[in-house]
């Protein structure tokens, strides 16, 4: 028997995160392109980001047929949040006249690269990158390297860089509750064994 699910945050009704999800405005428009394998993931942080930002859109897929229309939003300059040799630091856009349309692929690194490969228009976008040294609060996943953040953490860091002094930290409240809930469900001993220092 399946548990009743919240239709908004897709969490079990007993663990609904909606009361913690903020309602934030941003000058930057965020376009989240989510790999289908992430939709049912227990820690779907892209969905949390999309729900908490008024100027955000979440689209699920591998190939995005309507990408030209999505990227050509009047009044915005599209940039891909993804590492690359030619990626510009986010802070370079702080004083820009046109706000950014920040395109954020959501999936494992491998799946995100595949999405770029399958969508040449996406891969051709100028890239922006986060400041180095970001520390993830994502205690349930082994990060592939230093500075590897969850999708919602990356978006918060990007927006705070672009729109300082505005804070987007409230977006992290449901994320932190989600992680605490997962740790509680697995038990402290299991968490320490699998994810603790060591």
Automatic annotation (TrEMBL):
Q: Does the keyword tRNA processing apply?
A: yes
- Domain DTW, first and last residues per copy: 2-187
Domain of life the protein comes from: Bacteria
Any idea of its EC number? 2.5.1.25
Extract the GO molecular function terms from the UniProt entry.
Answer: tRNA-uridine aminocarboxypropyltransferase activity
Keyword Cell membrane attached? no
- List the protein's name: tRNA-uridine aminocarboxypropyltransferase
């Amino acid at each position: 028997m399946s548990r009743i699910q919240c239709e908004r945050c897709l969490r079990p009704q007993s663990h609904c995160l909606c009361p913690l999800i903020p309602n934030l405005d941003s000058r930057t428009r965020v376009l989240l392109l989510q790999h289908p394998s992430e939709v049912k993931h227990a820690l779907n942080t892209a969905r949390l980001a999309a729900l908490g930002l008024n100027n955000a859109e979440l689209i699920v897929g591998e190939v995005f047929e309507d990408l030209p229309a999505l990227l050509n939003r009047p009044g915005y300059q599209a940039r891909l949040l993804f590492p690359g040799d030619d990626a510009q630091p986010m802070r370079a856009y702080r004083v820009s006249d046109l706000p950014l349309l920040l395109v954020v692929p959501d999936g494992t690194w491998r799946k995100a690269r595949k999405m770029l490969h399958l969508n040449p228009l996406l891969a051709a976008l100028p890239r922006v990158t986060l400041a180095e040294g970001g520390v993830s609060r994502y205690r349930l996943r082994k990060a592939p390297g230093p500075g590897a953040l969850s999708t919602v953490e990356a978006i918060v860091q990007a927006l705070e860089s672009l729109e300082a002094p505005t804070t987007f930290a409230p977006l992290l409240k449901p994320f932190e509750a989600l992680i605490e809930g997962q740790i509680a469900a697995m038990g402290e001993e299991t968490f320490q064994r699998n994810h603790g220092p060591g």
